[in-house]
Amino acid sequence: MSSQLAIFGGAPVIPKGTFQAWPLVNEVDEEYVLASLRGTNHAFGPNCVAFEKEFAAWNGNQYAITTNSGTAALHMCVAACGCSEGDEIIVTAYSWSSSATCILHHNCIPVFVDIDWETMNIDVAKIEAAITEKTKAIIVVHLHGLAVDMERVMAIAAKHGLKVIEDACQAHGAKFQGKKVGTLGHCGAFSFNQNKNLCSGEGGMFVTDDEELMKKARMLWSFGETRTPTESRDYHAYALGWMYRNNDLTAAFGRAQLTRLDLYLEWQRNNVQLLDKQLEGVPYLIRPTEPEQHEHNWYNYVLRFDLAALNQMHNASQFRDKIVAALRAEGVEAVVWQRFILPRMTVFQAKNAYGYGAPWTSPHAQLVDYALEQYPVAQRHSDTHVCLVQSLRYPNGPELTELITEAIWKVMTQVETLEELAAV
Ligand SMILES: *Cc1c(COP(=O)(O)O)cnc(C)c1O
User: Fold this and answer.
1) How far apart are alpha carbons 386 and 157 in whole angstroms?
2) Which of 74, 97, 193, 195 maximizes ligand 1 atoms within 8 Å of its Cβ, making it the mutation to test the pocket?
3) Domains, the chain, ranges and CATH?
4) Ligand 1 atom closest to the CA of 195, numbered from 1
5) Nearest Cα to 226, choosing from 238, 214, 217?
6) What is the pTM of this model?
7) Element (H, E) at 207
8) In DSSP terms, which residues pair with 91 in a beta bridge?
9) What are 15-54's pLDDT values in tens digits?
10) How far, in Å, from the CA of 399 to the mean position of ligand 1?
11) What DSSP letter does each residue of 159-170 carry, written as one string?
């Protein structure tokens, strides 16, 4: 006999206070940050230099440049790849906004490609149809920590003379064919925002193995200068630059967290493996996949509900929201991630980036169309997904995972009863 759902007044499966928040800050973090604070250079200082070296070594890159956000690192990628006003850059239709707005930052034009249902990443089979004579680059987003099939993407890019930018902001340590993301394309960007697996409050890292790309990215990073803040500078803007540098305290925090990153990744993999096994057979639940040749980092464990089988596709996102509310009532930290697919966001639909229609009205640009019928898979995914993020992370362990399992079984075996629930 099933017990009453908490959303209808029953007892919740997971008691309050069971979940431990991310990230755990310990005495190592305190030591690193205090040492920086007690030092004399809080701007681009010794911890920034060390963080770049240590992260490059951890990831297997020749060059790493520490930035104040992942978005800054993405913009540096666009600039490094030599993209100019009006050039087109291909990107997935479903991601964080700045996977695509970084293209606008450089006056370039995003061209969206629908996603593949299985992997939730860009549908690689649809990339070639989106290439025009204006296309300069492809941004691949290793979404939720699952790498894109880079063998196929790099082959397409080579055939058409395109650069490949990796948005690895969620994918620290994820691998494809045994190689870490950020080493597979021409350059890449990581984020160290609080929610990411390596976090320092805010922050990011540009990575590449190409010296030319590194130099171009560095100019954009620091006022268009050609020398780094630790070299003797001539304070001259050789090109248009931004101020994307990191500061020493944040870099110190990032270095401290980096000492535990491998532990974090192993820990969440173990939690996910346990959870995924226990969710086998849950009705109306579609579990995420980890295809051959891929090593997921399980930054985000994303489930979809089979709302077609539940006859709820006519109001999919509303019914999904009811299931999420029911899970949350049981104490599961379930969250809906992106409610808007990228081309549906106002900045693209209204083309309102810089005023006067720029950059879309540039004489160097050609007309692009963001009609939403082009992205049905991304829309279906957005409407039917739910995420389990932080409750599967260090130091939350198997006890909590077992409770999450129990709560999901409880809700999904009674999911039809949610029809009577008023809209949430
Ligand atoms: C977080 C994130 C970004 C942006 O990183 P910030 O550090 O917040 O600028 C870009 N792309 C993806 C996929 C992200 O998850």
Assistant:
1) 33
2) 193
3) 27-259 (3.40.640.10)
4) 1
5) 238
6) 0.98
7) strand 204-208
8) 112, 139
9) 998 999 999 999 999 999 999 999 999 999 999 999 999 9
10) 30
11) HHT-EEEEE-TT
